[in-house]
Protein 1
Amino acid sequence: MTKDSDATDGPQLTEDGHHVVIDGRRWRATDPTIPDSFRQELVDELMAARRAVKAAEPDARRRVNDAKTALGERGAPWWEERSGEDFDARIAAAIRALVRKRSESSICPSDVARTVGGESWRTLMPEVRRVAADLADADQIVVTQKGSPVGIRDARGPVRIVRGPSL
């Protein structure tokens, strides 16, 4: 374990930085490669979802799970290989959490890639688009280009993602 923490240092981290220690319990740390602006959006969505749980709102626990998964605190460990079904689940969770947070606007697929991919985010764009296509098929998101809905599998060039009717 690292040195004791105080109010300015935040929670105590394990030697490898993969977990925080709070009241003697280990919890998975947030992925440190998430850019600050996206991390803050996900934390804001997590806090809103936790308030929704307290208010017994429908789908609140799913929102908490999506935000925590997008932050890297659940699902496949963020320090392991970024591929496979578990990583696809993190991409999907990031998409859902970000479109919920930006309910009045849209997100770019690169926002998701930056959130889950760290410095190698560009290599993840095909995976993000593939997962987005599956979410669009399930009506969880709508993919648009120049303001009009498009099929992301066929779209060339930049697209935007908005919240779908079944999310």
Note: The beta strands are 12-13, 19-22, 25-28, 141-145, 148-149, 160-163.
Protein 2
Amino acid sequence: MTGPDSEIEQLIALMARLPGLGPRSARRAVLHMIRKRALLLGPLADAMRQVADTARECVRCGNISTHEVCAICSADKRANGQLCLVEDVADLWAMERSGVFKGRYHVLGGVLSALDNIGPDELRLPLLRQRIADEGITEVILALNATVDGQTTAHYIADMLQDGGVTVTSLAQGVPIGGELDYLDDGTISAALRARKAL
């Protein structure tokens, strides 16, 4: 009994390197794509080739786009004075999925981390100051993950912008809608208790 040809094995191995896919899932995905070759495999290959040739970082915010300036940064209606800081592009896309935020973004490209030797110079902080001045930013919203490094970064940026003439806010943290206390970690419960409000 023989396995797949080497070209197919190579595709499986490459797919298995994607987040959330292991060898078994990759094998199933590749087999499904081959079975639906005309519907999936060809168009997927074309789309991947197109993205490989055109994808780049937006020169303003750091989002991934096929243009030098992404659609969010180039939309005049998004120039409302609000700038939302996120750790990476995945966080930006998550915020956009919610459809709630109508301003612009700034991708830091990580968070401060002494263990990983990531200091302020490794993040997109100098460009942040420039954008605040150039784009008439009045509010900077810190939408960083509620980790130790995320909170350290948030405090650093808040201190950095303290005399910058902008309001610095952060996302509320606490019990998610539909969340049950029994399933939440201690930090979330603590943050929710501290951020309690009158009904």
Note: The two ends are 68 Å apart (CA to CA).
